[in-house]
Amino acid sequence: MAVFFRGLVSLFLVFSVVMAVLFVDFVYKSFSLHPRDFRADAVVVLAGGRGRVEEGVRLFREKRGAFLFLVGVDPLVQKQDLFRDREGENLAGHVYLEKASRNTLENAIYGRELIMQKNIRSLHLITSRYHMKRATLIFRHLLPKDVAIYPYPVDSKNLREQWWSHGGSFRLLFGEFYKYCLFRFFFLFDSGEMRPGASPL
């Protein structure tokens, strides 16, 4: 019995070390993401976090995408609340709001409809930095493989670079790491029902 328990303890220690290494790698890659400065077919914003919509609108106005998709918008919000043409502009017709989704997976499922309707082949994906790896993983799994996704992280005050000394940042990153791992595991066994062509949930 003692040998059995020692084996369990050893297994737990190995598992803990592996998870710690993977977590640190997740955090390092999250902070290593940088926006890419070029034009894509569209700018896709996952609404909900502070600064995301504003950054998406800025990129769209700078012609970094021919379309602006605001995904996960509150149903009570109207387009004019988020985007209005300035004098001499004629861009509002290329701005689309998606209001049905309420989480990242639904963002990708319902956002995919807009993206495929416009035959988008490249996009800037905008969300908060801590959320970017999970969002990119889900969108890459659900969109056609020939659609290029360029992560465009937005920094927020609730995530500090010295995350190891800030409890809120650590909890935020670890929570995202946990969800990211769950989706990685889930997609390993996805039978293809969530691939392009599947019906929305």
Describe, in plain words, how this protein is organized in 3D.
The chain is an alpha/beta fold and 201 residues long. The protein is built from 6 helices and 5 strands; from the N terminus they run αβαβαβαβαβα. It has helices at residues 2-32, 52-61, 79-82, 104-117, 132-142, 167-188, and strands spanning 40-46, 65-71, 95-98, 122-128, 148-154. It has a 5-stranded parallel sheet, with helices on both faces. Helix 4 crosses helix 5 and helix 5 packs parallel to helix 6 (167-188). The termini are far apart. The mean pLDDT is 92.
Strand content: 15-25%
Number of helices: 6
Structural class: alpha/beta
The mean pLDDT is 92
Helix content bin:
40-55%
Number of extended strands: 5
Structural shape: elongated
What does the largest sheet look like? 5 strands, parallel
Question: What's this, in brief?
Answer:
It is built from 6 helices and 5 strands. It is an alpha/beta fold.
Supply database-style keywords.
five-stranded parallel beta sheet; elongated; alpha/beta; single chain; 201 residues; 5 strands
Task: Present the secondary structure layout.
Blueprint: H1 2-32, E1 40-46, H2 52-61, E2 65-71, H3 79-82, E3 95-98, H4 104-117, E4 122-128, H5 132-142, E5 148-154, H6 167-188
Parallel strand pairs: 1-2, 1-4, 2-3, 4-5
Helix pairs in contact: 4-5, 5-6
